[in-house]
Amino acid sequence: MSFATDYLAQLTTFAAASPLPRVLALHLPPLHAVDDHKGEFCAVELADGSLGLSYVRLGDTLAELHEGAVRYDLAGADALELAQRFVTASGPEKTVAFAAANAITRCLFDRAGFRPGASSDSIGELDAQPEDAIGMIGFFKPLLGRVLASKARLTVVELRADLAGEYEGYRVTLDAAELAACNKVISTSTLLLNDTLDRMLAHCRNARWLAMIGPSAGCLPDALFARGVTLLGGSWITEPAGFVAALTSGARHSECSSKYALTAATYPGWRDLLDRTS
């Protein structure tokens, strides 16, 4: 069973117990950067205002979504049917399906009266120490300062060959096997979209702390916790209308959302949430 299969099975159970709102719209960021801000996420909005995010900067995904605007006119679509494509689809269709699945997750959280706790820092609560060997899956340039200030040894695993090399205080490699030497790992949530999740997690078997973060990490965390992830950090949208306006205009939307963190200790489990909706 894959993460996608497990995730959609949970959402299907929720839909069977509690009818879902239909899709209201797909919201896209501008194709090109606005005022040096490059929109990286699309949002699927449900009729009840629930929003789910998904990363759109993999390959030509965003351009293809813009070019196929009529094809992706999803107003009135069945939210679960759209989300189920996350299991089998690829490219832009998978991206939109993941956003729909995350919108359903937000719907479940709201109906259950559950709000995740705020994140205590920007680096997945790694508590980096000088003796740590930290792995970073995906080049989180804005987070480098926090990690390097700890004097921990940092290894960044990337898919882009042009980034590989030795830098001051860290190195970038294409070899995911080097994660096996890391006792703490922080990962981008794009692993959930680029079909590298299981391969990367297999290399993190020696990590006692594995944080997956990013605005598109708005999924149910159960299947990730079962695979060794210890913290899931996403974005909690506090002002949906303002968030959509900012996203579609290319403006920054940090004032309309906050960062949250979920661990096995702070998360009740999807079945408990489902029971709260009945």
List keywords for this structure.
alpha/beta; three-stranded antiparallel beta sheet; single chain; Enolase-like, domain 1; 9 helices; 278 residues
Describe the structure.
The protein is α/β, with parallel strands linked by helices and 278 residues long. It has a domain at 3-117 and 238-254 and 268-277: Enolase-like, domain 1. It is 31% helix and 21% strand. It contains nine helices and eleven strands. The chain has helices at 3-17, 61-67, 79-88, 91-111, 144-149, 197-202, 222-225, 240-249, 270-277; strands at 23-27, 41-46, 51-55, 133-137, 153-157, 165-167, 170-173, 184-188, 209-213, 231-237, 257-263. It has an eight-stranded mixed beta sheet with strand order 6-7-5-4-8-9-10-11, with no helix packed on it. Strands 1-2-3 form a three-stranded antiparallel beta sheet. The radius of gyration is 18 Å and the shape is globular. The relative contact order is 0.17.
Count of alpha and pi helical runs: 9
Low-confidence segments, given as residue ranges, are: none
Percent of residues in beta strands: 15-25%
Percentage of residues in helical conformation: 25-40%
Give the class from helix and strand content and strand pairing.
Answer: alpha/beta
Tell me how many strands there are. 11
Query: At CATH's second level, what is the architecture of the domain at 3-117 and 238-254 and 268-277?
Result: 2-Layer Sandwich
> Could you give the distance between the termini?
28 Å
Main sheet attributes: strand count, strand direction, barrel closure: 8 strands, mixed
Class of the domain at 3-117 and 238-254 and 268-277 in CATH? Answer: Alpha Beta
Q: How is the CATH topology of the domain at 3-117 and 238-254 and 268-277 named?
A: Enolase-like, domain 1
* SSE order, one letter for each helix or strand: HEEEHHHEHEEEEHEHEHEH
Mean of residue pLDDT?
94
Which shape, going by the Cα principal axes?
globular
Strand order of the largest sheet: 6-7-5-4-8-9-10-11
Please give the radius of gyration in angstroms.
18 Å
